[in-house]
């Protein structure tokens, strides 16, 4: 739930929002919607359940063309809801969410079946036991594996050796590590990058490193820009066997252009041509 406000309320203050939009969200869902919007096929592996709120999430993802594998389809627990306040004029956002706290998805007995036929599998760091099992299966199947490193989470160190491409935010801080790119490479990641909002994206790979500039835009809402970056990156990257420095940096630049464009409008979907949280 995203609301546009004149300012973030002070303690005990009530205010009326300027606008509101509601949509299925979260890093993996937003990336899947982005990838589908750009012309790819997307499947979201998650847990939604059958609480009344779940019907809206499922319908929204279906309208966006995203298939869903629901590993918690019998759950009656309310799905996590993110409450987001976007400040008009600056695009800055304040977010409160449970994320996947307290919700453990089961690991199916046949993880390879979950990734059969997919060229790329992206992880957002949640549901770590499931992520580890799927990452191993994806690597064995030859699929490109990617990590959206929004922040450091328990189990991340065990996941990294199974990741081909990791793009992390400035909030991704491995314990005791000052050089994030070096840390990622030392832990088995082939291609690593760290985004810095409007600043350049720093990257490192097997044969070098550098910076990728980010286009400038007057931001109306920066919410979900990182998720859009990852969904677009999956779309532009070649298959794992064809990945090199030129392809990686070109894909990062194209993805950054899409992500920057998404910041020029309110909500996570308006840049696609949709209104009120819908897909265009």
Automatic annotation (TrEMBL):
InterPro entries in alphabetical order = Ketohexokinase-related, PfkB_dom, Ribokinase-like
Pfam families in the record, alphabetically? PfkB
Give TM segment ranges: none
Q: Where is the Carbohydrate kinase PfkB domain?
A: 6-267
PANTHER family, per the entry: KETOHEXOKINASE (PTHR42774:SF3), PHOSPHOTRANSFERASE SYSTEM TRANSPORT PROTEIN (PTHR42774)
Q: What is this protein called?
A: Ribokinase
Protein's organism = Wenjunlia tyrosinilytica
């Amino acid at each position: 739930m995203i609301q546009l406000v004149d300012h973030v309320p002070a303690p005990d203050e009530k205010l009326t929002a300027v606008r509101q939009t509601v949509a299925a969200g979260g890093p993996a869902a937003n990336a899947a919607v982005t990838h589908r919007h750009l012309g790819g096929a997307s499947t979201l592996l998650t847990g939604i359940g059958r609480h009344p709120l779940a019907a809206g999430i499922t319908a929204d993802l279906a309208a966006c063309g995203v298939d869903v594998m629901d590993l918690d389809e019998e759950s009656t627990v309310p799905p996590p809801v993110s409450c987001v306040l976007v400040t008009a004029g600056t695009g800055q956002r304040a977010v409160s969410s449970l994320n996947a706290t307290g919700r453990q998805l089961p690991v199916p007995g046949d993880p390879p079946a979950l990734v059969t036929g997919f060229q790329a599998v992206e992880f957002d760091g949640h549901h770590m036991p499931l992520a580890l099992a799927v990452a191993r299966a994806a690597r064995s199947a030859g699929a490109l594996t990617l990590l959206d490193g929004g922040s450091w989470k328990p189990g991340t160190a065990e996941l990294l050796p199974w990741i081909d491409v990791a793009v992390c935010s400035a909030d991704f801080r491995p314990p005791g590590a000052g050089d994030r790119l070096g840390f990622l490479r030392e832990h088995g990641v082939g291609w690593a990058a760290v985004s810095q909002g409007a600043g350049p994206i720093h990257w490192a790979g097997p044969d070098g490193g550098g910076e990728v500039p980010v286009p400038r835009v007057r931001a109306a809402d920066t919410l979900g820009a990182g998720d859009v970056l990852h969904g677009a990156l999956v779309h532009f990257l070649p298959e794992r066997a064809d990945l090199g420095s030129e392809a990686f940096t070109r894909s990062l630049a194209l993805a950054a252009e899409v992500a920057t464009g998404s910041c020029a409008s309110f909500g996570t979907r308006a840049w696609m041509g949709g209104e009120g949280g819908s897909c265009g």
